Amino acid sequence: MGGVQGVINSLLISIPICRLELAGRHWRVLRAIRHWPFYAVFLAKIGLYLILIVAATEFTRMLMQPINPQPLGFDVIFFQIVVYAGIMSLLVNAVIEVGRLLGFGVLRDLVTGRYHRPRREERVFLLIDMKDSTAAADVSTTWRTTGS
Length: 148
What we know:
mainly alpha
């Protein structure tokens, strides 16, 4: 029964967090929070995640009470679940936030050590100077802003 309880608990924790991370950027409250400093957003999300973890863990234990009788409340098993889930949410949240700041491609290169082992690369830069391109871009910009 412990496996079933673990699956239910992980779904009750992960589904709202995924919803918050993926669709939450469209919510007005979370868009306002994005203007906070990085550490404040990070700490607010960790606090919200911990509240969700505690609530989901207790709800799962109450739900499984008829099948798997165990004491409710803050016992050793509860604290183990909360500590493990808290550490995992901290790590995942750190990866997501740093990935959003740097870009996930840059984060991947940083983690895989690309910047620690420099390589010589040959690259080609192409500059094109089209005749009257500045005037054409200016007319195009004016047309879009006036709505004509």
